[in-house]
Amino acid sequence: MKIVKEAVGGENAAVTAQDLELIGALARKPLSQEEVYTFSVRLCDNEIDRDFERFTVPTLEQLALMFVGKAGIFDHQWSARGQAARIYRTEIVREPKRVTRAGDGYVWLKGYAYMVRTESSRDLIAEIEGGIKKEVSVGCAVEHAICSVCGCDRTQVDCGHEKGREYAGQLCWADLEGASDAYEFSFVAVPAQPAAGVVKGARRGSATRLEEEAALGRKYLENLRGEVVRLALLADRELSAQAMKSLADKLSHQELEELRKSYARRAGERFPLKTQLRYETGNAGFDEENKAFLA
What we know:
Layout: E1 2-12, H1 17-26, E2 36-45, E3 53-55, H2 57-66, E4 71-74, E5 85-99, E6 105-116, H3 122-129, E7 135-147, E8 166-167, E9 170-171, E10 174-187, E11 197-200, H4 204-235, H5 241-250, H6 253-270
Parallel strand pairs: 3-10, 4-10
Antiparallel strand pairs: 1-2, 1-7, 1-11, 2-6, 4-5, 5-6, 7-10, 8-9
Helix pairs in contact: 4-5, 4-6
């Protein structure tokens, strides 16, 4: 699953001898302190973002290794001219006193990037120094999106829980796990968000189709929950309709199907179907009036 996350970045960083050594490992020739400009960026974090997703701490640690050597571009448009910077070091920053919406300590991935001081990079450096270029986003890939309510992998199956909705007081979000690749970080022209933003890397046509399929899936689950509640009340009159509805809202598609089958069977035993027509098994006698219709 390819994702793009927006965050705040663009902070000047002093060049040390260790920095020059790390930069030299990526450059084709050793660079002096006067030849390079370095700055730090907040790449991504473990806070729940506006699309109700977040990176787990193990995923951030995996991305920390993958982002070393990755380029900085503009608006995620790949071209040789668009590559403006490169990450030479990363660091996991922990702020345990700051608590995320998920209830754990805040952790974020910090990247250190360098640029070569040239005439063409002078304006960009000035914009970073002046606070104009502050927003960056990262492009990466993860393998799993785990539902916070039921633990289902949303990349494999639709569990029916809607991100951003509360179930019995518990907010639903997706934990992004299993980093498989890091592509780049990009300077973007969008305003910084209080929490990391997300833009899916799908084409518009694919996104529209997925949205339509998701809407149909939600409608199906809504109907299935209603059917489970109806059958449960038929099978057991002592059940509370509100309690059953609350229970159905927390269950996955598979669990709802199992309950539907069980309650349908019990309701059928309580209210067996009867045919409207009855057929006589013996030789029935005819009354005098019916004889008139016989040939």
